[in-house]
Design goal:
This is Natural resistance-associated macrophage protein. It is built from five helices and no strands. It is mainly alpha-helical. The chain has two domains: 1-31, no CATH class; 41-95, no CATH class. The longest helix has 25 residues, at 61-85.
């Protein structure tokens, strides 16, 4: 069985399976948000947030929300800058 036939069968299965199709549509809708959260909450900050949460409870949730907002704004700005200039954000900062 060649890979083209396998890919064709997989695509036909996904088209016929309505539940799988709904799951994929849902993932495509929330996927960018998951990447944003993953970008903002990195591996090093997980332990820091757990420690601060244990010490201060939910009183510092505003800081997490604020950092998510700032991260979103910066990601959108850098994305637009990259689209306009064709150069990465680091290259633009360097020059």
């Amino acid at each position: 069985m060649n890979s083209t036939k396998l890919n064709s069968d997989a695509l036909n299965y996904m088209k016929d399976n309505k539940i799988l199709r709904k799951i994929l549509i849902g993932l495509s809708a929330i996927g960018p948000g998951l990447f944003l959260i993953g970008y903002n909450i990195g591996t090093g900050s997980v332990t820091t947030m757990a420690k601060v949460g244990a010490e201060h409870g939910m009183t510092l949730t505003w800081a997490l929300v604020l950092s998510c907002i700032f991260t979103y704004v910066l990601m959108v700005a850098y994305g637009k800058t990259t689209l306009v200039t064709g150069k990465t954000a680091l290259f633009n900062i360097k020059n």
